[in-house]
Amino acid sequence: MHSSVLVLKDSLKRESGAKVHHANIQASKAVADIIRTTLGPRSMLKMLLDASGGIVVTNDGNAILRELDIAHPAAKSMIELSRTQDEEVGDGTTSVIILAGEMLHVAEAFIDKNYHPTVICRAYNKALEDAIAAIDKIAMPIDVQDRGQMLGLVKSCIGTKFTSQFGDLIADLAIDATTTVGVDIGQGLRDVDIKNYIKVEKVPGAQLEESRVLKGVMFNKDVVAPGKMRRKIVNPRIILLDCPLEYKKGENQTNAELLREEDWSLLLKLEEEYIEELCMQILKFKPDLVVTEKGLSDLACHYLSKHGVSAIRRLRKTDNNRIARACGAVIVNRPDELQESDVGTGAGLFEVKKIGDEYFAFIVDCKEPKACTVLLRGASKDLLNEVERNLQDAMSVARNIIKNPKLVPGGGATEMTVSAALKQKSSSIEGIEKWPYEAAAVAFESIPRTLAQNCGVNVIRTMTALQGKHANGENAWIGIDGNTGAIADMKERKIWDAYNVKAQTFKTAIEAACMLLRIDDIVSGIKKKQAPGAGPSKPKIETEGDADGEQILPD
Is there a contact between 379 and 447 (Cβ–Cβ < 8 Å)? Predict the structure, then answer.
């Protein structure tokens, strides 16, 4: 079967099994090493140069890996992990990469001893089931209504981020925003749609302390005719439209032949009457503010301003949806279908303010807003971008807790507990799978070990002491305080993690490690670029000996 491997030299490249495993493991470890220093509150920041020449300063695992341009397929799939983690639970993006890298690292020894990857994966999957069972045991329920507990949790989750120096500010913003937007979906569960209904508006200038969550929405628009229309309306009646308030242009090139001069004025008059009728259909509901996603002609602007109605045009669809959720209006597609129930009366104040050199429209003081805007102020664009990234993480954590109100200890305590539980259980596992199972238990220690490294304490002493505390499956809440590197009780220090985040981290990391271990071949179908003018090269037949010596990546 292996007498000769036929490979089209210019389009296919191949590597043999053991080599591929080593290459994949090395690539994954390299990715993990890049962001290893960004775990924990005393972590380093990374400065990234992006493709457009701008700079990003951050210690958010996902934000760093997003900017990396890596050719190796295994490294690419590691980077995907942090993105998955970010989309799914929004936190733990660094932990998941470190854990997956460590899982692969401990597997390397078994690959060298000719263990079959399937055996290693089986052991890992067993370890994953037992790890989830272990965190189920130590999880602690939390009351979502208790703001103090929620604040402590969100704070400990963003304590590892750059904005932790601003204290409760970001945690407060996150909890306010997510509790505003949450909707009941029955059976006592709440759902929070951060992406669609919480808008983060970054306005450079002023101090970060002036950031706040609005009881309503704001957007970067001014009224159409500033001099004629009111810029401040108390308790406005709001109508939202999804249609243009201007005369429809003909499709393509429409020709109209007019024989008499009067016809021309008649044509103009018809256009004016059409717009007037549109405006009258809207005005009979006595609105104070009309917002449309499309255009609004000068004539329509005249009719509306004459009746004391303010108008805003060309608003984004997403902003319009948020206004609808905030003030209880319904977006209408045709003015002649307007009903009284479509008018939004939930807002307490419409106001246009000038911040910096731009005008922003605020629709605030809403009765029961189901959408909100977080207004962030700060010294510079870079600072605001980093605060926004941290705020997204904080809101995701708040959402996870609202969805699944359970806590586990942070500071590496959960991982040490899981590790101790797996080590105890490994003695009862029979057969060849025992050793990889034990190795997986050791791999979990990489998180507290990295925390200790980033604090700058003696890693070996700290880890030995921590292992001693966790030895018999007791002291589940003892972990490392990321600020001082001291071993402490996580309950007292209020260092917590959301159950969802931990469970997702373990699942993603182990499943990804298994997937990468099971790859025994990388076949690249990328054609080499030919020199211009050269004829088609003949495919060269290659024997198996050549295939093994082939390098998968150019040096």
Answer: no
